[in-house]
Amino acid sequence: MAEATAAPASPPLTRREFLSYIWMASMLLAGGGTTGAVLWFAYPRFREGEFGGTFRIPVGAIPPVGADPEDHPDGRFWLVNTESGVLAIYKVCTHLGCLYKWVPSNDRFECPCHGSKYQRDGTWIEGPAPRTLDRFIVSVEDANGSSLAETASGDMNTDPAAGKPVPLESGAADIAIDTGKRVKGPLHG
Ligand code: FES
User: Fold this and answer.
1) 137 - beta bridge partners?
2) Counting beta carbons within 10 angstroms of the beta carbon of residue 92, is it exposed (0 to 12), middle (13 to 18) or buried (19 or more)?
3) How does pLDDT run across 40-92, given as a tens digit for each residue?
4) Closest CA to 116 of 105, 102, 100, 92
5) 8 CA → ligand 1 middle, Å
6) Higher pLDDT, residue 129 or 19
């Protein structure tokens, strides 16, 4: 019976080779981690049409100027069309976070919890709420999705342009409301 021939043994790794393999493995891991982080931030966390993401509304579906604010429960905002433009007002009271309501007979928002009241553009009228209601960033877009006008972000306490209604420019096709970007309502005196 013929004897089996033993496979030649691989030479053992030198210390230098071992360290260079470890170094290459750690570089690959670091590179993979960086790529993952870039992808994580590059892709939107929220899909369109879910709270935290963008809500798109055709201009033809926006309530006329002066109409009652339109409730958008999925996006947690009230859509209001004022003479100066469009607002998307966050549905949470700035006092302790209750959901306030639109009361058509009084032409204002009223909070059932502690009685804070706000004008149709979210401006505080009375009650324990410390400030006006918050607004989401609204972008008025043309048919190609290019922005024609957008809510100015910034501090409404110090920047007179911040949070103002966005006019519906001619050529506007849609508005995009970003419920991930909120402009805080200013404190009242
Ligand atoms: S939570 Fe709205 S008035 Fe208190």
Assistant:
1) 178
2) middle
3) 666 667 899 999 999 999 999 999 999 999 999 999 999 999 999 999 999 99
4) 100
5) 81
6) 129
d(CA 127, CA 122): 13
Alpha-carbon distance of 163 to 182, in angstroms, equals: 9
Segment (H or E) for 110: strand 108-110
Distance set, CA 40 to CA 33, 34, 45, 52, 93 (Å): 10, 10, 8, 16, 32
Q: How far does the centroid of ligand 1 lie from the alpha carbon of residue 130, in Å?
A: 10
SS3 of residue 22 by DSSP: helix
- 91 lies in a domain? yes
Token pair 């905002």 is at which residue?
A: 77
Q: Is the CB of 111 under 6 A from ligand 1?
A: yes
* 16 lies in some domain: no
Residue 129 sits at φ, ψ, to 5 deg, of: -60, 135
What atom in ligand 1 is closest to the CA of residue 96? 1
* Inside any domain, residue 110: yes
Q: Write the pLDDT tens digit of every residue in 14-50.
A: 777 777 777 777 777 766 666 666 666 666 678 999 9
**Which structural domain range is residue 90 located in?**
54-183
The domain that holds 177 is classified in CATH as 2.102.10.10
